[in-house]
Amino acid sequence: MEKDIQVSSGITAAEVEFKVSVPDLWSPEEPNLYELRAELKTEQGEDAWSCHTGFRDVKIVGNHFELNGERLVLKGVGRHDMWKGQGFTLTRAQMAEDMHLIKALGANFVRLVHYPHHRYIVEMADELGLLVTEEPGYWNMDFRTMPRSTIELGYQIMERTIRRDWNSPAIFAWLLGNECILTADYLKEGREHCRKLDPIARPVSFANNMPKEEAKPIFDQAGMDFYDQHIYTFDIDQFRKEADYFGPSRPFTVTEWGAHQWGQSDVVMEQTVDLIMDLEAEGKIAGTAFWEWADMPQFGRVEIATLNGILLEGVVTQGREPRPEVYQALARLFSGYRQPAVVGCPPVILPLKWSPSEPGASFQPVELQALVESTAGVKAWADLESRLAAYWPKADMAEDQWKRTGSKFVLWSGSDLVIGGVPFHLPSVEGTVRPLMLTADAPVTIPIGSECGRLHILGQVTFGAGYPLLGKRGDTVATYRLRYADGREKSLSVRNGMEVAEANRIAAATRIEPIATDAQPALRYVKDIVREQYQVLLWSIPVDGGKLETLHCESKAVHHSWPSSR
To answer: Are 362 and 324 in a shared domain?
Structure first.
């Protein structure tokens, strides 16, 4: 496209229009770039200028951002343009390394704090597919008392930054400052400046740390395009409270969170990541930026996170060595990966203390599915769940434990196990293992119908309480009666601490190891790593020869046991 223009001394502005049909759009996933080249030819000579640019469309729809017609959630970090031992004098290789590392972490956004960064950083963002925001350098200022000359200086910095970077598709929004005492007049005037300068009217806001009650009306009066808040707290519920307070009228972002003395402990960090993902899924948070990407010098700052003048709050150190715990937690947030629910995870098969069978033995599983699905089996399971619902608050557990884990006692998926060479086929209901319950008011008769030399019973635990916390060792809590085809019978006592023990391996704040000396631990099942860890025992019973018809089980205890016969 060519156009004749009249060039005067000084600055001459001219517009040249052209159309691009069906361009490949720019996005973090596909950062498609085009070269824009402008040439000026006069009788006195020629000049040329070029840059890379891209085509993308950012919109605000209700309380969320859209990029190219799809919902966009900003997932990023705050980055200072500094390096260990060099201050602000980074090489291009170091700048590129930073941006490549951030991209590799899974981020789609970098908040360039708190001043204009080197142009090459923006070019790297264009190339790699990283959205960025830029700001004029204000921090800890009071706009109520600030001289007009200082305000004008900020506008000038923003103008030069916008004119330098407006062709970069990576530029997502303009932030008018960081952590100041705000006025609606400053924000409104600043937004108007950005609108006049930026031909595609990118969103405008402020990186805010004022209390929400003070900030929201100022943001509303000034017409900010989205709300923002910095959240540093041990009380992670504050994220939800802030999001709910600002409400659904505009997108809500958190452009600083984390910080060493608040958010970077293992427990707080992991729970915060989960909550942020919840709020993103609910549409209450439109973006976040973790504080901060790299450690940096702050010699005038005295607090827990500062050591020898270095603020140790980075995902990486000053020399860009990752901090594994923080790095991994953010990688999980950026990828949207949730820790798999413990409920339904398979049990761990434990090494047996002694072999349950003779070498070369063959095995025939006993099917329990019909008994589990019987009227008595269904009733016994319902009785268990009603007891558990009443049991948890009284057992020094969290009062919400039963609801928190689904108001059901759900075991793992799958029904085939081999323990010590013995195959077990476990009954299941609705896709998860359902053991056969034995209650005091409902004896169970298990059909065997085969000749065998040994009977292997998987289960042998009381639930939800029992020995060693309740009862004495040696107390008989159940009787198992072997019935043979020739009419013989043999009774076996199931005794606390010998053939049976409690399933629970956690009691209140204590981890316990319930032991039955004649039934060895075979499985460990974790339903909730904090409060619910269970064991399953294996009891191998010698059989006196001949065809064994049934195993009849009667409970003498008020507690449940869950035998699974083989």
So the answer is: no
In eight-state DSSP terms, residue 115 is S
Q: Given 305, 335, 365, which residue is the final one in a domain?
A: 335
Cα dist. 347→343, 366, 534 in Å?
Answer: 10, 21, 9
H-state helical runs in 201-310? 212-222, 237-246, 266-281
Cα–Cα distance for residue pair 468/112, rounded to 1 Å: 59
Residue 420 neighbours by CB under 8 Å, 6+ apart: 352, 355, 356, 357, 522, 538
Which of 129-138, 343-352, 499-508 comes out lowest in average pLDDT? 343-352
Structure tokens at 238: 């504050």
Residue 93: CATH number of its domain: 3.20.20.80
Query: Mean pLDDT, to the nearest integer, of 510-525?
Result: 90
Partner residues linked to 58 by β-bridges:
67
Q: Could you give the 3-state DSSP secondary structure of residue 345?
A: coil
For 433-492, give the DSSP string: E-PPPBBTTB-EEEEEEEE-SEEEEEE-EEESS-TTTSS-TT-EEEEEEEEETTS-EEEE
Q: Which of 354, 325, 173 is nearest to 258 (CA)?
A: 325
Half-sphere exposure of 137 (CA within 13 A, CB side): 16
Q: Are 411 and 459 in contact (CB under 8 A)?
A: no
Pair (450, 309) in one structural domain: no
Give residue 564's pLDDT band: very low, low, confident or very high (50, 70, 90): very low
Phi-psi region of 430 (alpha: psi -120 to 50; beta: other; left: phi over 0): left
Do the domain assignments include residue 48?
no
Say whether both 326 and 420 belong to one domain. no
Collect all residues with Cβ–Cβ distance below 8 Å to 105 and sequence separation of at least 6: 77, 315, 327, 330, 331, 334
367-378 pLDDT, tens digit each: 999 999 999 999
Residue-wise pLDDT tens digits, 447-472 = 999 998 899 999 999 987 889 988 99
174 lies in the same domain as 301? yes
When computed from its CA atoms, the radius of gyration of the chain, rounded to whole angstroms, is 34
Q: Is the dihedral of CA 99, 103, 105, 109 positive or negative?
A: positive
Computed over every residue of the chain, the mean pLDDT equals 89
For residue 491, give its domain range: 350-565
Contact indicator for 462, 501 with CB cutoff of 8 Å: yes
Distances (CA, A) of 30 to 24, 26, 131, 174, 200: 9, 6, 12, 23, 21
Task: Kindly tell me if the per-residue pLDDT of 166 is higher than 80.
Answer: yes
Domain co-membership, 374 together with 295: no
Q: Which H or E element spans position 184?
A: helix 184-197
Rounded (10°) CA dihedral 469, 473, 479, 481: 130
Angstrom distance (rounded) from CA 452 to CA 446: 15
